[in-house]
Specification:
Layout (H helix, E strand, L loop, with lengths): L5 H8 L17 E4 L16 E4 L15 H9 L5 H6 L19 E6 L2 E6 L2 E5 L27 E4 L9 H10 L4 E5 L3 H4 L8 E4 L12 E5 L19 E5 L4 E4 L8 H9 L4 E5 L6 H4 L6 H11 L3 E5 L13 H8 L21
Helix pairs in contact: 1-2
Pfam family, one: Lactamase_B_2
Protein name: L-ascorbate metabolism protein UlaG, beta-lactamase superfamily
Organism: Algoriphagus alkaliphilus
């Protein structure tokens, strides 16, 4: 990884314990559970109490407490990447199929826009996920955006999984707020205060894990747990909830993983929601694994999760667009193509701008 991102990475993983706003002078925080009282639970695990949150206001993972180590990030950033020379000479990039206009004509579509961003048309509803489309001081795209944002006029919902800058981009959301003022934002608890000023005309719904959003169409979208964390600056660690999504229509189901380390929550999701027809699995930004594994899953573990969840079609994402870690941009896809049996031969090879639905 280029060392120009050192300060950005450092800010992203400074331990919560050294941030004064997170210190509780009255003793250690206690565990509570929370939810949005305005949203229902259509499906929930047995004995579910709500989204775990400490009394200091920080959200918590289900099975793996969030831990950050300044020493660990310094070790990662200062150690030599064994693939550094290979990355300098690697010119391979994702294949991009440019879209002139978006006219679904009544048939479902699932179009990858790069990284964790999708354009989805399902059950007559148009959805965007985690749109990060414009270069900024932190992120530079290595794959072209396949569509002109001006072509999007009838988007119903924008799903924002969490506040990290490779999933939640201020400039992109300000643009979409102007282009799509009627689109509703579906996101996690406490995200509204971050994005409302960027999109002042857009309605925002904030959910806890396993809560279902209030939508009019014959579609169900449920917010789900991941093993991850959140931070936008230096003083807001885990103040906003992170998560993934389960989208259900009468014809098919789509699981959007977002960012996650490996954990038992995947099995909990499939037991509660069912096995997905399409599993959109993060597979990149995973090296070095000793450092990345609590927050980003490897292609090997993503394949294992797919097997555990009983998915039908495996669609890899979160690689190839942004250079966030030590591996080569297309390395995760290389491994998946070399090991098709790992996902039961169910790999859908992703092409940016192409409809990835099978059939």
């Amino acid at each position: 990884m280029r060392r120009r991102t050192f300060l950005t990475s450092l800010a992203a993983v400074i331990p919560a314990g050294i941030i004064l706003s997170n210190l509780d002078l009255n003793g250690p925080p206690t565990l509570t559970h929370t939810s949005n009282p305005k949203l229902p639970y259509d499906k929930q695990p047995s004995g579910w109490k709500g989204t775990p949150r400490l009394s200091d206001g920080t959200f918590q993972n289900l099975y793996h407490p969030f831990e950050a180590s300044l020493a660990a990030v310094l070790k990662w950033k200062l150690d030599k990447n064994p693939q550094e020379e290979a990355k300098k000479t690697d010119k391979r990039r994702l294949e991009v199929n440019h879209i002139g206009t978006f006219h679904p004509n009544g048939r479902d579509e699932l179009i990858w826009l790069g990284h964790a961003s999708y354009l989805i048309y399902i059950g007559g509803v148009t959805i965007l996920t985690d749109p990060v489309w414009l270069d900024n001081w932190v992120l530079k795209r290595n794959s072209a955006l396949p569509i002109d944002p001006e072509q999007l006029r009838d988007v119903n919902y924008i799903l924002l999984s969490h506040d990290h800058r490779d999933h939640c981009d201020e400039a992109t959301l300000k643009l979409l707020g102007k282009l799509l003022p009627k689109a509703q934002i579906l996101t996690g608890m406490n995200m509204g205060s971050l994005i409302q000023s960027w999109m002042p005309k857009n309605k925002i719904q904030e959910a806890g894990w396993f809560q279902t959003y209030d939508i009019k169409e014959s579609l169900r979208i449920t917010f789900l747990p991941t093993r991850h964390w959140s931070r936008r600056g230096l003083l807001d660690t885990n103040q906003r909830l992170w998560g993934g999504y389960y989208i259900e229509s009468g014809e098919s189901t789509i699981y959007f993983m977002s960012d996650s380390g490996y954990g038992s929550h995947f099995k909990l999701i499939s037991e509660t929601m069912g096995s997905p027809d399409y599993a959109l699995m993060g597979v990149g930004a995973y090296k070095p694994e000793w450092f990345m594994h609590p927050a980003h899953i490897s292609p090997m573990d993503a394949a294992k999760v797919f097997q555990e969840m009983g998915g039908k079609h495996f669609i890899p994402m979160h690689f190839g667009t942004f250079d966030l870690s030590d591996e080569l941009l297309l390395e995760p896809l290389d491994w998946l193509k070399a090991n098709p049996e790992a996902v039961n031969g169910a790999l859908v090879e992703p092409i940016v701008g192409k409809n990835l639905l099978v059939g």
